[in-house]
Amino acid sequence: MMLSSLPARFFSTSAVKESTKVAVLGAAGGIGQPLSLLLKSSPLVDHLSLYDVVNTPGVAADLSHIPSKAKVTGHVGAENLGEALKGAKVVVIPAGVPRKPGMTRDDLFRVNAGIVKGLAEAAAEHCPDAHLLVISNPVNSTVPIVAEVLKKAGVYSPKRLFGVTTLDVLRARTFVAGKKDVDPTTLKVPVIGGHAGTTILPLLSQNSAGVTFSDEERDQLTHRIQFGGDEVVQAKAGTGSATLSMAQAGAEFTEALLAALNGSDGIVECAFVESPLTDAPFFASPIKLGREGVEEILELGQITPFEQKLLDELVPVLVKSAQAGVDFVNSSE
């Protein structure tokens, strides 16, 4: 089963039969605004519900002037979060603070964990059957936070919770294509593991173009894909992190999921989900999407000794990160 390489707007939408509300939590932020712009243009979205603590009405008004199928509503402040979520089929969560120069994802955890926990509690109350797509970093811990909140509320389903790691896949495709002069729009490169530094493991040996790499090229590409976010943080020189590329990644995964929920078959994407593949409770790998969300977690296939070594090293880190998320929820009760 090959990874999908096109946004869902290129898939058949003939199976769409019901109104689809998508809520974006953190819609006025650096990721939220371009993400909302991309989703406004999606033929799979009927109602785009935008929420943030500030500025959402302006963002909603701006987007509402774009002629597309999706109705746009803006909701600002905690007192309106329930209305933003009510009836949502998919909830995308880019809310939180961006990473700044010198800031690790552990630093981000201390800031963003409480934000994500509160949003998960609201989703559990107002749209318990929605599919939740977590972008807020550090994903290795925020996804377990959301899972723990949903479990305590009695509404958790592993088929409906995703950590969006699509940006790692986009970087892998872009960087490999640039190095080997192949078409990045058709190239497929699975990326497994987590969504932070050395927990990100691109399976370069499984690239769809069949290109090969010297050890030096392999090492350089692996490191660049793992730490691609640092390139953007440094280039923006204190003004932000990867927002535009993350918005593209978030929109692509959201559209792929919506297409699968509406009956399109054969859609495979990488995502950070509850997984039996390793000792880590959550793990990113290629998954087949279906009408209920996660339809099948695919096997990793043949990997090289180099990739196996990195996999063995990253799993304990993911276990620790997941436990940090669980401990945060339990300690804040």
UniProtKB/TrEMBL annotation:
GO terms for molecular function: L-malate dehydrogenase (NAD+) activity. Residues 165-328 form the Lactate/malate dehydrogenase C-terminal domain. It catalyses: (S)-malate + NAD(+) = oxaloacetate + NADH + H(+). It comes from the Eukaryota. InterPro entries: L-lactate/malate_DH, Lactate/malate_DH_C, Lactate/malate_DH_N, Lactate_DH/Glyco_Ohase_4_C, Malate_DH_AS, Malate_DH_type1, NAD(P)-bd_dom_sf. GO terms for cellular component: cytoplasm. NAD(+) binds at residues 26-32, 52, 112, 135-137, 246. The active site is at residue 195. Its EC number is 1.1.1.37. Substrate binds at residues 99, 105, 137, 171. Homodimer. This is Malate dehydrogenase. It comes from Fonticula alba.
